[in-house]
Amino acid sequence: MVAAVTVRKNGKAEMAYVGETPWHGLGNVLKPGASISTWIKEAGMDWSVERTPVLFDSGRAGTKSWDDNHVLFRSDSRKPLAVVSDGYQIVQPGQVMEFFRELCETNKMTMETAGTLFGGRRYWALARTGHQFTIGMKDIVKQYVLLATSCDGSMATISSLGSW
Predict the structure, then answer these.
(1) Do 94 and 78 share a domain, yes or no?
(2) Which of 29, 56, 74, 126 has the fewest C-beta atoms lying within 10 Å of its C-beta?
(3) How far is it, in rounded angstroms, from Cα 91 to Cα 157?
(4) Which residue positions in the chain have pLDDT lower than 50?
């Protein structure tokens, strides 16, 4: 798994981008202005995180449940993602993309990249704001909005405005 980008069994990377091919060579190239629906599909974020109570084989006593704990799993492959408490709040992959729908439509932002990492345990999206400045005579610094989260408790949902 190069760069931790999720790759499905069919060999398709769960990542989409516009512009230059990323350094790792993975992902699906999109034309600027592609719809958020297209981004969701091509970035491999067209599944949801589901939950079920944790059950375990306790030997002679049979199957038992581990109260207040749940397994999170992918709706498409049924692969487990994490064990969390029953109060864990899930941010769905599609919600990350929907965050950008209105931003892009009303603020003239453009999607740059989106996808999943570590088998779907983390996902992100990045849009360019259209604002930029020049340092010196030729170094252009562009401004972006990032939204990233995990469904395994490894990071909180973050939104960041930054320049690169």
Answers:
(1) no
(2) 56
(3) 8
(4) 1
Reference 93, options 132, 138, 54, 151; nearest CA is 151
Q: What is the pLDDT of residue 36?
A: 95
The reply to whether 151 and 116 lie within a common domain is yes
pTM of the predicted structure, to 2 decimals: 0.89
Looking at residue 122, its pLDDT comes to: 97
Tell me the residue range of the domain where 58 lies: 49-85
Number of domains within the chain: 2
Say what the pLDDT of residue 2 is: 61
Residues 10 and 40 in one domain: yes
